[in-house]
């Protein structure tokens, strides 16, 4: 599954030693309670290890940071277990793979030059979505469905080989990214990089206060010069006899997106804590030729309960519309429709660094004749 998680550049906290280590262990139990999915509970999990090397503290040079992320997934999930849905219902257990054991490693460097921030190497775009201020993301926190955890534009892989530059200019923050169009999930050697084209991204983010409460507005342009190579790019799509042309023949594609996150309440003692509205609308054309438009909206954040400062909640809706070419091509064989759904969750911090989430999803699948699917589950995240 290709995603285009919103790019949020986290502020690196100052470190007192050359090496900063942390880890997360996230476990999931879930089952399909309606639709065509398997009803028995399924257990899976993921381990994420992070290492951050401060260049100045290590005796190299100022402004340099080396980032490493190792991840291991195991067990089973509610992804692809019979329910005829387009997007994974468990984002965190869909990468690197679903319903299998897998390891992946991402390594990149960050160099700060005044206000300019440069990041290059193998970059985990999916994991960056955890820094979204209202929604959070990444499936280990916040929403669990891919559409809400990291809304896909189907133009960028979850992990890319390339570079991203970020800098504030007046009230705006601008991000410019360039990377290879091939997926870098479980890839480590840059062979034939940019042979199939190039992907580029431009994001303009404007912080704005409404009624004294912080909000964020972003406009994103994704461009690609890639050519769709059929089964090579989409091994899960196997056109049946009698179907029309499903994927575009010409290279190049475009995805436009506007997204907003607006706090409606902020803790006066901790402005980063609060709840508010979020949403996005996106439009796609050309390669890779899967989506026409997509949208999300909802409410998420921290409840205004003074005794529960680390709890979070969310209610969200999503809708993803397939490209007309794909819908019309499949019509003689299998009628398709927009996929839409909703998710609700609540996260409670049981004790420090132990966070338990209850989650429920209701989905109207992409297959027009498929019954409505429903999922329920629990998630336990332990941080070290």
Please explain how this structure is put together.
The protein has about 375 residues and is mostly beta strands. The chain has a single domain, classed as Carbohydrate-selective porin OprB (Porin, Beta Barrel). Helix content is about 5%, strand content about 50%. The chain is built from three helices and 16 strands. A 16-stranded antiparallel barrel has the order 1-2-3-4-5-6-7-8-9-10-11-12-13-14-15-16. The relative contact order is 0.16. The model is unreliable at about 1-10 and about 235-240 (pLDDT under 50).
Short note summarizing the structure:
The chain is mostly beta strands and 384 residues long. It has 3 helices and 16 strands. It has helices at 125-128, 146-149, 324-330; strands spanning 19-34, 42-54, 64-75, 102-113, 116-124, 159-169, 172-179, 199-210, 213-224, 253-267, 270-286, 291-301, 312-322, 339-351, 354-364, 373-383.
């Amino acid at each position: 599954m290709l995603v285009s998680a919103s790019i949020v550049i986290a502020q690196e906290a100052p470190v007192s030693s050359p090496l900063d280590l942390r880890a997360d262990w996230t476990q999931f139990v879930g089952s399909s309670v309606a639709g065509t999915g398997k009803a028995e509970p399924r257990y899976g999990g993921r381990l994420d290890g992070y290492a951050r090397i401060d260049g100045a503290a290590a005796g190299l040079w100022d402004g340099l940071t080396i980032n490493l992320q190792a991840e291991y997934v195991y067990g089973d999930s509610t992804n692809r277990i019979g329910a005829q849905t387009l997007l994974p219902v468990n984002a965190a257990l869909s990468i690197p793979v679903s319903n299998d054991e897998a390891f992946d490693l991402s390594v990149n460097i960050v160099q700060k030059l005044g206000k300019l921030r440069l990041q290059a190497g193998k970059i985990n775009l999916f994991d960056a979505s955890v820094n979204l201020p209202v929604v959070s993301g990444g499936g280990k926190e916040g929403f669990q469905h891919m559409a809400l955890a990291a809304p896909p534009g189907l133009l960028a892989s979850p992990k890319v080989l390339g570079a991203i530059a970020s800098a504030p200019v007046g009230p705006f923050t601008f991000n410019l990214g360039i990377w290879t169009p091939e997926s870098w999930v479980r890839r480590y050697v840059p062979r034939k990089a940019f042979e199939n084209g190039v992907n580029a991204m431009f994001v303009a983010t404007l912080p704005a206060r409404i009624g004294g409460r912080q909000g964020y507005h972003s406009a994103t342009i994704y461009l690609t010069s890639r050519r769709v190579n059929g089964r090579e790019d989409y091994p899960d799509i196997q056109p049946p006899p009698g179907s029309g042309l499903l994927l575009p023949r010409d290279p190049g594609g475009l995805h436009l997106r506007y997204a907003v996150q607006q706090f409606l309440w902020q803790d006066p003692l901790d402005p980063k804590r609060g709840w508010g509205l979020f949403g996005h609308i996106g439009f796609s054309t050309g390669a890779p030729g899967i989506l026409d438009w997509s949208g999300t909206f909802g409410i998420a954040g921290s409840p205004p309960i003074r005794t529960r400062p680390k709890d979070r909640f969310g209610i969200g809706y999503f809708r993803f519309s397939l490209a007309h070419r794909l819908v019309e091509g499949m019509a003689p064989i299998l009628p398709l429709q927009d996929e839409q759904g909703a998710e609700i969750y609540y996260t409670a911090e049981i004790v420090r660094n132990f966070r338990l989430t209850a989650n429920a999803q209701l989905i109207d699948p992409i297959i027009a004749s498929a019954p409505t699917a429903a999922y329920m589950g629990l998630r336990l995240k332990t941080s070290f």
